[in-house]
Amino acid sequence: MTNKRKQLLKPEEYEKLFLAFTKCKDGEMRTKIQAVRLYGNNVPVAAITNLSGLPRRTINRWYSRYWRVGLNGFVDNRRGGNNSYLTDEQIEDLASKLNRYRPVDLLGLEKVATADGLFWSVPNLRQAVKQWYGVEYKTAASYHRLFRLCDFSYQRTAKVFRSRSEMKVAEFEEMVEKKLSDHAQEHPGSIYLTEDEASMYLQATTTSVWAPVGRTPVVRAHPQRDKVNFYGTLNLISGEEIVTKAEKLNSEATAEHLEQILAAYPKQHIHLFWDRAKWHSDQAVNQVLENNPRLEIMKYPPASPDLNPQEHVWKTARLYASHNHDCSKLAELAARFEYIFRTNKFNYSFLKKFNTVTICATSK
Question: At what angle do helices 88-100 and 56-69 cross, to 10 degrees?
Fold first, then answer.
């Protein structure tokens, strides 16, 4: 697509810039003059970017500045301090440094604004920008904008257990891919499930909501920690959920949930993923597995709850059923929780990374 420019350089202006370019000894200014000359001569911006290393927005800005004030527009007359701002080139340099360094690497542990200084925050960005470029902005919003310009976003950290082994995770994924491939041929139409347990407390958990400024929303939480337990099993193909309510999490309750799974899929071969909880391997569970060889277990690696899609189902259900809730009776809260599972499907891409197109097609 042709780049239409409203105002191109006249021959005399082009020569004027060429003369300024040949006389200029400053490398950065020569680059800007050359970029303006090429842009004004209708050279494609992509070509100018490749030659100069300047981003498109910088080229456009310098070209507009040239038309406003002429060659004086190339001179940096900023005074520093609160009256100065980072250039596009400095922002690109800042983005590189923010990816390369942690706050603790730059400032030391005694000056960081977060525990151990592993992640960037507004106070530490303010210190870094002042140290690297001698620039200090007045508002936090300006530093938020800097983060966005550096391709950073405000995120909640993901928790990973110290005992987690990435080697075991890789071995698990390799094992799963091989087994699923074999099962697709040996047991076409198999069911693929993942299971986990969760507890629901009568005492409400809180989460952020939108509210009028100056009026903090209040949740009247129950003072006691009464709870109800759930077994949840997700069908990895259909997104359907099987839920069992239990007073305790033990081998007997686990066996009861397995019987519920077997009843839901009375003829199919079942592959069930679950973790290494102690109640998954006691006598009652082993008896169910021995009596039902069509139910095959595959265990997640230790300390890897993030691999289990059922964990994400719990998170979704808590969002709609238990966060900021106003229930005064545990039975009412449990019923609300179960209703979420009965009326929704939860689709996750767990199987897709194992090249399971054939499995998905034959299991529906």
Answer: 150
Query: Domain-by-domain residue ranges, the chain?
Result: 11-74, 88-149, 167-207+221-363
What does pTM read for this prediction?
A: 0.60
Other CB atoms within 10 Å distance of the CB of residue 286? 13
Number of helices (H), then strands (E), in the chain? 14, 5
261 contacts 295 by C-beta, under 8 angstroms: yes
Q: Is 29 exposed, middle or buried (0-12, 13-18, 19+ CB in 10 A)?
A: middle
- Among 199, 194, 170, 177, residue whose Cα is nearest residue 318: 199
CB neighbourhood size of 75 (10 A): 9
* 51 vs 237: which has the higher pLDDT: 237
pLDDT higher than threshold 80 for residue 77: no
Q: What separation in angstroms does the CA of 173 have from each of 191, 251, 298, 333?
A: 18, 27, 11, 37
Radius of gyration (C-alpha) of the chain in whole angstroms: 31
Backbone angle region of 66, left / alpha / beta, with phi > 0 → left and psi within -120 to 50 → alpha: alpha
- Looking at domain 167-207+221-363, its CATH class is alpha beta
The whole-angstrom separation of Cα 164 and Cα 169 is 8
Query: How many CB atoms within 10 Å of residue 346?
Result: 20
> How many angstroms separate the CA atoms of 316 and 306, rounded?
14
